[in-house]
Amino acid sequence: MRRRAVLTGGAGFVGSHLAEQLLAHGIDVVCVDNFVTGAAENVAHLQSHEGFQLIEADVSDYISIPGPVDYVLHFASPASPVDYAELPIQTMKVGSLGTLRTLGLAKQKGARYLLASTSETYGDPLVHPQTESYWGNVNPVGPRSCYDEAKRFAEALTTSYRTKHGVNTAIMRIFNTYGPRMRPNDGRVIPNFINQALSGSSITVQGDGSQTRSLCHVDDLVEGALRLLFSDLSGPVNIGNPHEMTILELANLVRDLAGSDSRIVFVDRAKDDPSQRQPDITVARTELDWEPKVDIRAGLSDAIAWFRDGHDQASHGGSSGTVGRQAGQPYRHKVAVIGTGYVGAVTSTCLASLGHDVCGFDTDSARAGQLNNGQAPFHEPGLPELLKSTLATGRLRFTDNPCEALPDADFVFLCVGTPPGPDGSPDLTQLESAIQSVAPHLRAEAVIVNKSTVPVGSGNWTRAMLEDALEGNRDLAFHVVSNPEFLREGSAIDDFLYPDRIVLGGADVDVSRVAELYRPVLQQTFAGGRRKVRPALITTGLASAEMIKYAANAFLATKISFANEMAQMCELFGADVRQVLPAIGADHRVGGAFLNSGVGWGGSCFGKDVAALIATGQEYGYTPSMLQATVDINKAQRASVVRKLQRELHMLKGRRIGILGLTFKPGTDDLRDAPALDIARRLLAAGAKVSAFDPVVKVLPEDLSAVRLMRDAYDAADRADAVVVTTEWPEFRLIDPAGLRRVMRGNLVVDGRNFLSEANFSESGLRLIGFGW
To answer: Which PANTHER family does the protein's record reference (predicted)?
Structure first.
């Protein structure tokens, strides 16, 4: 019977090489990885091997492997300063709980257990070179402590399982290792130096470069690991290269081998950076007959060649044969974005921040100029800062001249408005105009990416429009892909860079090209990428991608309307919706997001998209009655605010009502379909005097000129008979109820978002009422 190994962290840099060699030794491999720092692409070439199995799982949780297991190798862990600085808790958990789970598996199966520990257990050593008997000099509360102490704990736990439970364990202490499949942005010295040398940028050496490292090629390390695994040694055993060199010597060597003219610059040294690192490998030499064989120059040349060939990108998503990217050149494409409204401005800025060359086009020259000056034309947290920093790189610019934006663009994003018409169907006038302006300037094989929210079937309509516009140039080929946006106002930057999913619809080859643009997002390899974020890439046909956008928003709107329906019934039955909805949302099949009662939804998306879906269905003779109910319930919630005020105040004519919050949600200055404005109109029509405050809104529509905009919440509540909170701005939670009561004439506060603390109001003399309780 073939032997079988369970390898945690098997899709990582070292783990993937180890998996290859285990299979070469005739050992089946169950590779377990949660892809926080590993990547499925590292072991993609092993997937066809009959003895290989890849399981996505976190070994900090309980793991169960059916069938016999002969070896358990625990190699899972973030392993670079960048990783464990960003993921300290996960690092501690995989070193503690992950070690506990894998030791338990080895005990259950009677398997030989190999722990991948580290030279970091020696800390900044006071003994040189380091022998296995040295206890180390580790700072337990320093920036590296989560990694150092996790490994020290793992060694202690492994030793305890050996002595207490008789588990056949071994501990190897890995010293600095390098080679193919290292992540380009993992923060370790070898990838840093190689990337800097190949790009021609300055090679950054920490301190004066006199600190030393001992570098072992991954092939040598794997050989040492297998010899220890197949031995009866318990360890710990140092596995590393005793050849010591300074960081400055390493920088010069990498520069020379890469044929680079990069200059070397010195930067501040990281805290607790070890001054010396050199293994004493006497035990490995005498007990395992092992020592490294790969010369440092040959090994570094191997690693440099791998990075130069562009495999650093291939190991984190997609094939190595990337379109539009030459070996060794930066991952970069030329992009034009048509329309610089909310979606267009965010898309332009974020794509350029990922390293692409982006030109945003807008017929409004004033807006293009405003953006070129680093001024965001609307309120969106984080956008002004990202806009300015990205403009400074030279990769981002805006223009009102299509001749400047389009002729060299490989990708053209359509990001124009599609407002609702009188019957609810989208008005495609702006999109039609954009297509007409794009057509004369398209380059051959350009991909038209439609991010505008359009009716199902618009991809074909876009293609037909372009074909008509290009009647005089039938030989010019182009491609159409649907890429619906899921940006939430107030968190658009995060939504673009750290999304749940990216949806692309179209022909497979066209979708693959657009996916390349998003590769840094999909694999989180850009500066600031989050290893724990793994966005899903969903590829569909054109019509399905267009439908996904509408269906997603319709579902979220329906979820809110459902919550409000339950709130109405709770008020009738004497139940408390604040207790009911969280209990419903605790079911993982439901989830708590958007399960909130109050004055209902608003904004530019939900109402427009639900109306468009209803209108499109009616074109085909079908009326979606549930979606119509979603809209009707939402409208009723706004009217219910007025009814609550009428019930409590009886007559609204001549009453003073203060409204807190005017935007449809916090974090934006968008007033489109805001519930507060509808409520204000109803109050004015009933003869009430309305004052209002919003943290960002300074101007209201002309039809609301009778509403007095005040400088703060207390001014808005001055002499008010009642106050209505319609937007859940965080600062409204900080309102002093006693202070509010002092300026009000009445004592009624209507919480239109069910987000204020009832306890804070109970002693102030104010009566707080909400929705569903």
So the answer is: UDP-GLUCOSE 6-DEHYDROGENASE TUAD
The gap from C-alpha 212 to its chain's centroid, in whole angstroms, comes to: 36
| pLDDT at position 317 over 50 | no
Q: Is beta strand 264-267 parallel, antiparallel or unpaired with respect to 708-709?
A: unpaired
* Integer Cα distance of 602 and 74 in angstroms: 51
E strand or H helix that includes residue 496: helix 492-497
DSSP strand pairing (216-217 vs 177-178): parallel
Going by pLDDT thresholds of 50, 70 and 90, the confidence category of residue 473 is low
Residue whose pair of structure tokens reads 């890439």 in the numeric block: 537
Strands 212-214 and 244-246: antiparallel
pLDDT for position 531: 66
Please check the confidence at residue 313 and state whether its pLDDT lies above 50: no
Q: Is 71 a catalytic residue?
A: no
Burial of 543 (0-12, 13-18, 19+ CB in 10 A): middle
Q: Are strands 264-267 and 244-246 parallel, antiparallel or unpaired?
A: unpaired
What span, in angstroms and rounded, lies between the C-alpha atoms of 474 and 244? 65
* Residues 620-636, mean pLDDT to the nearest whole number: 95
Q: Residue 374: CB partners within 8 Å, gap ≥ 6?
A: 384, 387, 388, 391
Q: Which residue has the tokens 């190595």?
A: 320
Catalytic residue among 71, 113, 122, 147: 147
Spell out the SS3 assignment of 302-359. Answer: HHHHHHHCCHHHHCCCCCCCCCCCCCCCCCCCEEEEECCCHHHHHHHHHHHHCCCEEE
> Rounded to whole angstroms, how far apart are CA atoms 106 and 502?
39
Tokens 């010293």 label which residue? 175
Distance CA 253, CA 264 (A): 12
- Domains with residue ranges and CATH for the chain: 3-181+216-242+274-293 (3.40.50.720), 334-540 (3.40.50.720), 557-773 (3.40.50.720)
Q: Which amino acid is it at 314?
A: A
113 close to 170: Cβ distance less than 8 angstroms: yes
CA-based nearest residue to 319, from 310, 328, 308: 310
Beta pairing class for 396-399 and 334-338: unpaired
For the question of whether the overall pTM of this predicted structure is more than 0.85, the answer is: no
Q: How far apart are CA 769 and CA 749, in angstroms?
A: 6
Closest among 422, 306, 416, 312 to 363, alpha carbons compared? 416
Q: What tokens appear for 193 in the block? A: 């130096």
pLDDT score of 85 more than 90: no
Rounded (5°) CA angle 450-454-455: 135
Burial tier of 705 (Cβ tally within 10 Å: 0-12, 13-18, 19+): exposed
Q: Are 660 and 697 in contact (CB under 8 A)?
A: no
